[in-house]
Amino acid sequence: MISKTDLPDVIPVFPLPGALLLPRARLPLHLFEPRYLAMLDDVLKTSSRLIGMVQPYEAPSGGKLHSIGCAGKVTAFSETEDGRYMITLSGASRFRITGEVDGFTPYRRCKVNWQGFEQDLGPVEKDPDFDRPAFMDALGKYLTEKGLSTDWESLGEAEDELLINSLSMLCPFEPEDKQALLEAPSLTTRRETLMTLIEFALRGGSGEEVMQ
Q1: At the N or C end, where does the chain have fewer CB atoms within 10 A?
Q2: Which helix H or strand E contains 152, and what residues bound it?
Q3: pTM of the prediction?
Q4: Would you list the DSSP string of 74-115?
Q5: In this structure, are residues 35 and 196 in contact, taking their beta carbons and an 8 Å threshold?
Q6: What sign for the dihedral angle of Cα 162, 164, 166, 169?
Q7: Hey, where are the domains in the chain?
Q8: CATH class name, domain 4-121
Q9: What is the pLDDT of residues 82-108, one digit of tens each?
Q10: Based on the number of CB atoms within 10 Å of its own CB, is 26 exposed (0-12), middle (13-18) or buried (19 or more)?
């Protein structure tokens, strides 16, 4: 577990369009670019082992970054025979970027502020107004529309937070939609945002109902 005192003022960041990490969730990543292999090597030498996932405004990782991201702790990694790494980040806390650090590392580092995201380090969030049957019905239609499959038994057994956060991370939404899910101030607002995105997709990406 990460505590507030473990959170550093500067962290390496990994700008990756469409890749969303949320607190208490896990994100598998495949590292092969030399700069990110160097980043992992440096991160594993730190006590916190944190990497900040952040959405760039443009696809190139050298462009402008969104101000809010989520840091994850490297909790598993394995090396392939050709020198690539498969790692798992466990979501620790969201952060706000206050500036970028100039330096000699091939990867980007940012000054970050953790204030305002204290609940990320707390217990699992609840969503008392969650209408699960209605949500699962809409989700089923969405997955069918997108030609996607899922393990319905596992989804049915998942706690509210795991269900909502996992779907927020896995569903193929646009990067700006992923950012909206990240910035949702509570599990309830994230679920409402997720439901809105699903309903929007079911309407064909427009404000009008699709003819049946």
Answers
A1: C
A2: helix 152-157
A3: 0.89
A4: EEEEEE-TTS-EEEEEEEEEEEEEEEEE-SS-SSEEEEEE-T
A5: no
A6: negative
A7: 4-121, 132-202
A8: mainly beta
A9: 889 999 999 999 999 999 999 889 999
A10: middle
